[in-house]
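Weekly modeling sync, notes
Attendees: S.R. (lead), two postdocs, one rotation student

Agenda item 3: backlog of single-chain predictions. S.R. asked that every request posted to the team notebook include the full sequence so nobody has to chase files. The rotation student volunteered to paste the first one in as an example of the format we agreed on. Action items at the bottom.

Example entry:
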Amino acid sequence: MSDLVNGLEPWQFYLIISLVLTYTMVAGGWVLAKAGRSPLWILLLLFPYVNIIAVWVFAYIRWPFVDRTAAPAPPPTDDRDA
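Predicted structure, as returned to the notebook:
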């Protein structure tokens, strides 16, 4: 492979890469779910060039928390009766 991974067996190198990729996919899916989107969007990051377009689309689509209406204000209370 390269001088950087000469001390590793190929299976060790692939194990490290798969662990990093799995962590990235899980963390990205969690972020997408918190943003109100399907975590399956993260699968687009596995494809070259599609991943750049997917990140760009995700950045510019409407966000669910922007579209929701604010909670109504609580009714005023009359403190003079107390």
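Discussion: group reviewed the output briefly. The chain has a mean pLDDT of 83.
Action items: rotation student to repeat for the remaining queue; S.R. to check formatting next week.
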